[in-house]
Amino acid sequence: MKNSITIYSFFLFFLGFSSLTLVLGQDKKMEKAAENYEQLDYVNAQKIYLAVAEKGHRSEELFTKLANSYYFNAQYDQAVKWYGSLFELNPEPENDIVYLRYSQALKATGDANKASDYFDVFTSKSGLKTAKNARNYADLIQQNSGRYDMEALSKVYDEEKISFGYFKSGNILYYASTSDTKTFLNKRSAWDGLSFLSLYSIELDSLNQALGHSEKLTGSLNSKFHESSPVFTADNNTMYFTRSNITAKNRKDDQKLKIYRSEKINNKWQTAEELSINSDHFSTAHPALSPNGTKLYFSSDRPGGFGESDLYVATINTDGSIGEPVNLGPEINTRGKETFPFISADHELYFSSDGHFGLGGLDVFYVKIKNDGFGNLLNVGAPINTYADDFAFGIDQSTRRGFISSNRSEADGTFVYDNIYTFLETAPIIDVYFAQIQGLVTDKQTGLPIEDAIIVLTDSSNKIYKQVRSNAEGFYTVETDKFDSYFVKATKERYDSDEYLSKANLEHQRIDFQLQTNEVPLVTGTDLAKVLNIPIIYFDFDKSDIRQDAQVELEKVLAVLNEYPNLRLEIRSHTDSRGNDAYNQKLSQRRATSTLKYLVDNGIPESRLQAVGFGESRLVNKCSNGVPCSADEHQENRRSEFIIID
């Protein structure tokens, strides 16, 4: 614990699965199908599955597909119904992810206890909890330690006085210090008994070694009370800095902090004006500017934040006015203190925090600012960070030299007043959390890439982590946290969504999606078997009688034919190459005829149907006579097709 009080501490005293559901675009205008069916353009898989299930037919595939279709469209009450039917049919479904989906649907409909039970089963099956606990913060900090050579700033360092700051313009360092022994009417700061902080400058060489002596800034910049944290625009004609609330009307507000701005005219700093984002009722302090000078970052304990003090950003308009402050969010801000932001020329945010895991009091953290948010948050490691409070970090991207302020002491574990250190960064920071997931999204039936599929990553709490889209080649890539697992979901209009669980502790992994069409246009040549997931109508060996398990598949076709009374189908049956060619031809014809008869017996006019057996004449792979193939390869050829004809 600290055994002394520092001035910046008083400055900071008063700074003191939500599930994204991608609803398919049902309202989007569909292109016209064949003229014969222009009033009913598409076969909708969900509608057909529902019709089959409501007739009393049961199968794991049927209930899973139906439940998933409701789940991915946020119809959680219906999802609960059909996932429940699935688990009644098979208490241990083949695909573990249905435990998660059932849990989320239960949670969304208010059954939290049952949801928790199924989520626990899912995490135990997937190993999610083990992966989540894999992170060792101390080891990660160690990986980024030892990258700095540093020493106290000569001619400024003084254990009897306070100095801190980082902003260097040209060869001049600007900082705040209690170096002045004179005080207003011999009055000293009630915070520490020292003189009030004032703004100073000192000339440095290219190695950041002091050449001369400190000089107090002239003009109207230094008031009777505290000034600190000066930063300048690129032309050096505008300064933003922190000042005590010298205009407070109430005694309780006079220790609040405000940000002021001063303009240099004729080489003289003008009277500073406070910014519109200030208030007498909370503190606003420690400004930092974006590289192009259009954004102002700062720390504040204003209402609505996450902790004692948060980091905010506001736009600096062309007329000099300041826009509405925006909180940087929970990725940056914690229940503790976040303060002293610095933005590098490469759009990197450095700041100090005692709310993120660190080595001592305030530690310096790094995060890359991206167009869509932030990169991974990293502790910069020792020796920048210590047991003490380390803050006011700033670095020159071209020289890799910079400054850090700290109340550390050479006697480890003791504290002194804040002082400035100069450093050289000898190696770039390592993104110890970096990992990447990439893959292809293709059409399951055609194998063609699917462009503009939406890939959503959610964490174990079902909160959205990131979202990307596949490109024209169906490819996607997304950066992740190596130590976390994610639910990676792919969605595309008129396709069934699909979801996988990524693995933790892998820097690179590939997750490909093959999405199945859930709506097909009623045009000549369309195969209903593809959208209705009917790869084969099963028959007993050397038989052509319809088995009971095949009836569920034929009920799907029957539902389509009943829905579209003008629709005509050609039923095609195929075998693999094993066995006599002529016999396979006859067997496939008998099976196609048997399939036709089932549909006719269930009310479909025979005039709407044709039955054709192709035997082994239309193989879809290399597995012809005499070619050695696996059972799975032969299975590809034993297929059923239901082709729309004129």
UniProtKB/TrEMBL annotation:
Record carries keyword Membrane: yes
Sections of the chain in a coiled coil: none
Residues spanning the signal sequence: none
InterPro entries, A to Z: 6-blade_b-propeller_TolB-like (IPR011042), Bact_OuterMem_StrucFunc (IPR050330), CarboxyPept-like_regulatory (IPR008969), OMP_bac (IPR006664), OmpA-like (IPR006665), OmpA-like_sf (IPR036737), TPR-like_helical_dom_sf (IPR011990), TPR_rpt (IPR019734)
UniProt-recorded name of the protein: OmpA family protein
PANTHER family assigned to the protein according to its UniProt record, in alphabetical order: LIPOPROTEIN YIAD-RELATED, STATOR ELEMENT OF FLAGELLAR MOTOR COMPLEX
Cellular compartment(s): Cell outer membrane
Organism: Gelidibacter pelagius
Keyword Membrane included in the entry's annotation: yes
Every OmpA-like domain range: 526-646
One Pfam family from the record: CarboxypepD_reg
Keywords: Cell outer membrane, Membrane, TPR repeat
TPR repeats: 60-93
Top-rank lineage group of the source organism: Bacteria
